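can u do me a favor
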């Protein structure tokens, strides 16, 4: 045990030295080297609250920010020393949060790209981040099985929530911010009182890994999906299953509700994005979206566009009205 602790301490020392740019007298980059091109991985994407920008994950610790109007690159954000896995904007759009396999998540100021804070505490990669509406608090989920609640831009975490038996993959916060919902590779959905973190309920929701959660804008309906290919719609308050959506031929990696709550979008390893009508579960449209697995999907704030990202390293913007392709964004 002592040897293991010492080894972990040495790893953390090296990581700090690399991040700070000083490793045994040798200067290293505190951000990815300019020679390492910012290449889209598309593991995660997010629209800015005003709908003008879209952020996505990149290789070599980069985060890339593009204009929605013409697909032009606005800027790149560096700082991670591991691949980025998750991005999201704060509710005001002032901050961009990015989670990485380097066990940390960063907060950057969107206006100028300045690093505001590195939130430190998780022992493995960061898979999900959510903000409160006033941007006072945030929660993060990790492969280390923990959920942490933080004051924004402050270390250490206020509290740690434990209960999942495997990687925690997804988070959702109810509109009234009284419940935090989590799901992960143990197949369970867990409900926590927020912000005190008291465990409320747990659902044995899927027989295989849960990869995605989405909460309807009114907070009434919770969608979950994962490796078993099924999409399940739950009554969030009653904790009961109300609908099962079948059709994908591969694992479902991401879910998103439209801003009006009428549609649910799903992204799958079967290379498609599907649109479902929430009122009756009908399949509205299947979009052959990418040349490989589709990793993430998001509606624009006005509900007119649907963005998808995939293993072909592209972001595609689709018209919700008819499923037509409006724009493809690729690495600069």
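np, heres the sequence
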């Amino acid at each position: 045990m002592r040897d293991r602790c010492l080894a972990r301490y040495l790893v953390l020392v090296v990581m700090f030295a690399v991040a700070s740019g000083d490793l045994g007298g040798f200067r290293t980059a505190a951000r990815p080297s300019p020679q390492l091109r910012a290449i889209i991985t598309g593991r995660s994407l997010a629209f800015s609250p005003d709908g003008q920008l879209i952020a996505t994950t990149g290789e070599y610790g980069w985060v890339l920010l593009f204009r929605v109007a013409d697909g032009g690159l606005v800027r790149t954000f560096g700082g991670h020393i591991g691949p980025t896995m998750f991005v999201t904007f704060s509710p005001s759009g002032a901050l961009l949060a990015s989670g990485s396999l380097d066990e940390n998540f960063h907060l950057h100021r969107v206006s100028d790209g300045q690093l505001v804070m590195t939130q430190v505490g998780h022992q493995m990669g960061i898979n999900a981040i959510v903000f409160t509406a006033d941007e006072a608090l945030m929660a993060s989920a990790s492969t280390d099985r923990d959920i942490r609640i933080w004051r924004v831009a402050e270390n250490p975490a206020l509290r740690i929530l434990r209960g999942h038996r495997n990687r925690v993959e997804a988070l959702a916060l109810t509109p009234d911010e009284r419940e935090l919902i989590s799901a992960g590779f143990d197949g369970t959905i867990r409900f926590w009182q927020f912000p005190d973190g008291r465990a409320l309920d747990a659902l044995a929701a899927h027989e295989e890994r849960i990869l995605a959660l989405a909460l309807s804008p009114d907070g009434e309906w919770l969608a979950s999906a994962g490796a078993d290919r099924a999409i399940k719609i739950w009554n969030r308050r009653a904790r009961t299953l109300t609908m099962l959506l079948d059709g994908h031929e591969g694992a479902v990696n991401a879910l998103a509700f439209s801003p009006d709550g009428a549609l649910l979008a799903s992204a799958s390893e079967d290379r498609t994005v599907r649109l479902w009508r929430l009122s009756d579960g009908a399949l509205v449209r299947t979009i052959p979206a990418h040349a490989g697995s589709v990793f993430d999907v998001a509606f624009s704030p006005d509900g007119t566009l649907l963005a998808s990202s995939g293993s072909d390293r592209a972001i595609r913007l689709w018209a919700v009205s008819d499923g037509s392709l409006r724009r493809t964004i690729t690495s600069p």
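The two ends are 46 Å apart (CA to CA). hope that helps!!
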